[in-house]
From TrEMBL:
<dbReference type="GO" id="GO:0009699">
    <property type="term" value="P:phenylpropanoid biosynthetic process"/>
</dbReference>
<comment type="similarity">
    <text>Belongs to the plant dirigent protein family.</text>
</comment>
<comment type="subunit">
    <text>Homodimer.</text>
</comment>
<dbReference type="InterPro" id="IPR044859">
    <property type="entry name" value="Allene_oxi_cyc_Dirigent"/>
</dbReference>
<protein>
    <recommendedName>
        <fullName>Dirigent protein</fullName>
    </recommendedName>
</protein>
<dbReference type="Pfam" id="PF03018">
    <property type="entry name" value="Dirigent"/>
</dbReference>
<feature type="signal peptide">
    <location>
        <begin position="1"/>
        <end position="21"/>
    </location>
</feature>
<dbReference type="InterPro" id="IPR004265">
    <property type="entry name" value="Dirigent"/>
</dbReference>
<comment type="function">
    <text>Dirigent proteins impart stereoselectivity on the phenoxy radical-coupling reaction, yielding optically active lignans from two molecules of coniferyl alcohol in the biosynthesis of lignans, flavonolignans, and alkaloids and thus plays a central role in plant secondary metabolism.</text>
</comment>
<keyword id="KW-0964">Secreted</keyword>
<keyword id="KW-0732">Signal</keyword>
<dbReference type="GO" id="GO:0048046">
    <property type="term" value="C:apoplast"/>
</dbReference>
<keyword id="KW-0052">Apoplast</keyword>
Length: 107
């Protein structure tokens, strides 16, 4: 049976450090990184589901848009985008707090 697509809008506030996610250099002129990030939901309505973000992250830009390329559980066949905004960062400790506004279309 076909199910209608749903749109989910999430705001995720992520305390992070440089060890979270997979980064690759993707730019020679400014700090542009290729980032792969796996959001795994461990509670609530989406417990057990994941969302995969893969795209260019120009870390020094105020907002960065990255594609949602897929997911699992509730987010199977997910497509969408995430907008990342850094609220706080400390280059000495590599700590940061980043807000991800996620718009995702799924079934
Ligand atoms: C999330 O799901 C797992 C696996 O089903 C379960 O063990 C866990 O208790 C759930 N967590 C919450 C907060 O509901």
């Amino acid at each position: 049976m076909a199910r209608a697509a749903a749109t989910t809008i999430l705001t995720l506030l992520l305390p992070t450090n440089s060890s979270l996610g997979l980064y690759a250099s993707a730019d020679s002129s400014q700090t542009g990184l290729l980032m792969a990030l796996n959001f795994a939901f461990l509670e609530g309505k989406f417990n057990g589901s994941t969302l995969i973000v893969l795209g260019r992250n120009a870390v020094f830009s105020a907002t960065r848009e990255m594609p949602i390329v897929g997911g699992s559980g509730v987010f199977r066949f997910a497509r969408g985008y995430a907008k990342a905004r850094t609220h706080f960062s400390d280059f000495k400790t590599s700590d940061a707090v980043v807000q991800y506004d996620v718009y995702v279309l799924h079934y």
